[in-house]
């Protein structure tokens, strides 16, 4: 005899979603917040239990995969939703999802209205998400303060280089080296800040102001063009000063748009 259907479902890739993955605790928290808020609205409207689970399975969330399994077990094996929730919850390794589904099971068995349970869970998840988001914002503030120090350090390097040219005869390669060190220092700071910025990855995958989107479009055009022109002028033995001026002129629109933003 073959294995029961719910065991096959539970062991499919360890019950983890196929199409979407959680990317850290912040992404998981936001995903569950979106899922629970969506379900609580449906339940509050007075929709039947079957429609709540059906809509939850269609939500654009990674957690919707678990509700698809619940729907499948309920339809194929004629389990009630409480037993289906327990079956899927016990088979998953994700502790957040497991706890949610087991609590949902207890709520359904006790006869508690779905709207009350989902509203309570949504409020708890909102508080958890707020705490995670707040901690990341506080960390981001510290990194932005550190980035100001990096900028000042880069400016100081450039000033030392300029003053040195007034006192001694400095090779152009030395000035270029200082400039590259400044760019690498500020670039590393930007990369660290980018990693620390909290982001909603489930729904707002292309968030940003109009200026940010316009700056990204201009950057994709100006940056390759600036590199090609700089390489051509370098091969043509052009004066380094003119090369820097032309490159700066080409990337100026992107920088100006970001200053406006």
Structural description of this entry:
This protein is mainly α and 261 residues long. Helix content is 78%, strand content 0%. It contains ten helices and no strands. The protein has helices spanning 5-10, 24-44, 49-58, 64-77, 81-91, 95-110, 114-167, 172-196, 210-235, 240-260. The chain is elongated and about 85 Å long.
Features of the shown structure:
261 residues; mainly alpha; 10 helices; 0% strand; disordered N terminus
Would you kindly provide a brief summary of this structure?
Helices cover 78% and strands 0% of the residues. With 261 residues, it is mainly α.
Question: Any chance you could write out the topology, listing elements then pairs?
Answer:
Elements lengths: L4 H6 L13 H21 L4 H10 L5 H14 L3 H11 L3 H16 L3 H54 L4 H25 L13 H26 L4 H21 L1
Helix pairs in contact: 2-3, 2-7, 3-4, 4-5, 5-6, 7-8, 9-10
Which series of helices and strands comes N to C?
Answer: HHHHHHHHHH
**Helix proportion range:** over 70%
Extended strand count? 0
First-to-last CA distance: 65 Å
Which class of secondary structure composition applies to the elements?
mainly alpha
Instruction: Report strand %.
Output: under 5%
What is the molecular shape? Answer: elongated
Overall pLDDT score: 81
Cα Rg: 28 Å
Largest sheet, strands/sense/barrel: none
The quaternary state of the protein chains shown equals single chain
Distinct helical segment count: 10
Q: Give the low-pLDDT segments.
A: 1-20
């Amino acid at each position: 005899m073959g294995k029961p259907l719910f065991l096959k479902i539970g062991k499919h890739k360890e019950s983890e979603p196929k199409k979407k993955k959680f990317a850290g605790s912040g992404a998981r928290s936001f995903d569950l917040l979106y899922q629970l808020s969506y379900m609580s609205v449906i339940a509050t409207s007075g929709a039947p239990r079957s429609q709540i689970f059906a809509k939850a399975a269609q939500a654009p969330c990674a957690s919707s995969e678990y509700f698809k399994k619940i729907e499948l077990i309920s339809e194929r094996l004629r389990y009630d939703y409480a037993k289906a929730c327990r079956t899927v919850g016990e088979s998953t390794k994700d502790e957040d999802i497991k706890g949610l589904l087991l609590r949902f099971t207890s709520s359904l068995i006790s006869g508690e209205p779905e709207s009350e349970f989902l509203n309570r869970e949504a409020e708890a998840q909102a508080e958890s998400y707020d705490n995670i988001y707040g901690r990341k914002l506080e960390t981001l503030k510290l990194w932005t303060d550190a980035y100001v120090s990096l900028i000042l350090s880069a400016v100081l390097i450039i000033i030392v280089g300029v003053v040195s040219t007034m006192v001694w005869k400095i090779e152009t390669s030395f000035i270029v080296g200082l400039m590259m060190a400044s760019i690498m220092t500020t670039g590393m700071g930007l990369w660290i800040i980018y990693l620390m910025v909290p982001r909603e990855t489930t729904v707002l995958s292309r968030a940003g102001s109009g200026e940010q989107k316009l700056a990204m479009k201009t950057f994709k055009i100006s940056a390759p063009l600036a590199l090609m022109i700089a390489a051509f002028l370098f091969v043509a033995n052009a004066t380094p000063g003119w090369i820097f001026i032309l490159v700066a002129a080409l990337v100026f629109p992107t920088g100006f748009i970001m200053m406006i933003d």
